[in-house]
Amino acid sequence: MIKVIQPGLQTTVQDLGRIGHYEVGMPPSGAMDTYALKVSNLLVGNDEDAAGLEITYMGPKLKFEADTLIAITGGEIPPKINDEPAGMWETLSVKAGDVLSFDFVKSGARAYLAVQGGIDVPEIMGSRSTYTLIGIGGLEGRALKEDDELKIASDKNVNVKAGRKIDEDLIPKYSKEHDIRVVMGLCSYRLTEESKDEFLSTEWQVTPDANRVGYRFKGAKMDFVEREQPFGAGSDPSNVTDQGYPIGSIQIPGGIEPIALLNDAVTGGGYVTVATIISTDLDRMAQVKSGEKVKFVAVDIEESLKARKEMKDKLDEIRKQLA
Amino acid sequence: MTRYEYGGDEFIFVELSEEMTLQANFKAKAITEELRKRDLTGIVDICPGNASYMIRFMPEDIHPDELIELLKQLEEEVSWKEMTIQSRIVDVPIFFDDPWTHEVLMRFRDNHQDPESTDLDYAARINGYDSKEELIKAMTDAPYLVSMIGFVPGLPWCYQMVPQDRQIEVPKYVRPRTFTPERAFGFGGAFAVIYPVEGAGGYQLFGTAAAPIFENEQKNKDFKDEITFPRQGDIFRYRSITREEYDEIREKVEAGQFEYLIKDFSYKPQDVLEDPDAFSEDVIRRLYK
């Protein structure tokens, strides 16, 4: 059992998401940085899709009621055990009565805490991930609050010891300027050629409107190819006949402020989408903060598959190192 | 011309038509159902849309270009006009011009095209109706096809089964609202929707549905198996109700004793396309007989 002394800014239970229900409008939720969650689970001997805590900007204060192993990965929100600095990206031992707290965020935006056995909350539609908009998953469908108690699943008997680490070069570094790779397409035919170029050359600033639902950016005005609006679409040039939005797609309502749709986003609607963030770089988006700069870099489908393969190889390497 | 587009490395988006048509909707349904039947490894989600559809897949199992080739082949092969659609006709009671959406739409007047009017009066005027009562009559006379599900869990996009010259069309709010009440009945573009839960929204607000379309607690009969009610391909008949009936239905819902009036029904796309008016009459007769 873990007792929540302070909840932090936005701390939620997340696994790898509620997959396969997009058709009824159910977004995946789940850890925004899947690489970090997987590695934290592997470090404590869990299956990589076990539920952990996603910690945003400001960490919680947690008291452990039993001896266990934990690992903290992702954005650098420096952890402390009983006020003593503790390492990230390594297996840590905690004793009953120990208190885990965090310093201010140094780089990145989200850290992940895995506990041996995984956080034990009911599975809803195949996942323990929190989706606050409709209040399902996680702990009562909401972020943690003071005095909550988290149960730990105890069906783990993997023999893992504290002190395990992964190689330094497998630990991502997060700066304040981010290159995020996208595949152009969807309804990008609606943008003028000049605006397509400008979309890729602009240094977009992340607005305060940046959370698990999506990130909104400021930086340039996009223009659309003139047309008579098709029947059913609506009258604004940025309107299309309502359609599905891929996870990671970027829409531009009114041509003004692009929005990247992330884990808890709407699954469809009537605004034009022009590009999709590739799956590996969704992990990087999770580590972007309000006020930072993002450049969208166009890649073709083969490059996106290559990036995907590299990510898979990295995780295989980590599994090997920890075996 | 159909557009086949990558949505990153895990999605293919296929736009069959830029404008909304029943033909495009039925075609998307036929292609996605055929793909579902093939039961291919690596297909994660199959999402039929209004005039488009979207597939989520794992590229380790199926290369995106291979999937596009297959989808193009399906587009050529499916005989969507002759397919049989297994559907449900559902009576959906709506309290139009209700106090709750009225309060919200007045609060967000500055976000609207016509701050001096109300959403119903504005929509009646731009669609050539003399009064909001006439608009409500037109919206409830003919049934709607549930042409897509999404936005948030269970939200049905509904497209009225009338010839295009009688379709009601309204713009979305100039700037979206930050609040929409739960079960609000809205209209945007050529689509009617019910908002399952409260949240942001940009559709014109006309009323409130008495019964839920999303129920987390799963206490009413229609939610025992799924927390969402609408299914793509359903036929909804929106029926205008009084405050009195609204309150009666709410009591039943709260007590866990509400049940939608549903009739199972199968039809072919050509039945609708050849004579939408006769089709609508038939649907309504079957629902209430």
Automatic annotation (TrEMBL), chain A:
Residues 23-314 form the Carboxyltransferase domain. Pfam families: CT_A_B (PF02626). The keyword Endoplasmic reticulum does not apply. GO terms for molecular function: ATP binding; hydrolase activity. InterPro entries: CT_A_B (IPR003778), Cyclophilin-like_dom_sf (IPR029000), PxpC (IPR052708). It comes from the Bacteria. Keywords: ATP-binding, Hydrolase, Nucleotide-binding. The keyword Transmembrane does not apply. This is Biotin-dependent carboxylase uncharacterized domain-containing protein.
From TrEMBL, chain B:
SMART domains: AHS1. Keywords: ATP-binding, Hydrolase, Nucleotide-binding. SUPFAM superfamilies: Cyclophilin-like, PH0987 N-terminal domain-like. The keyword Amino-acid biosynthesis does not apply. Pfam families: CT_C_D. Residues 2-230 form the Carboxyltransferase domain. The keyword Zinc-finger does not apply. GO terms for molecular function: ATP binding; hydrolase activity. InterPro entries: CT_C_D, Cyclophilin-like_dom_sf, PxpB. This is Urea carboxylase.
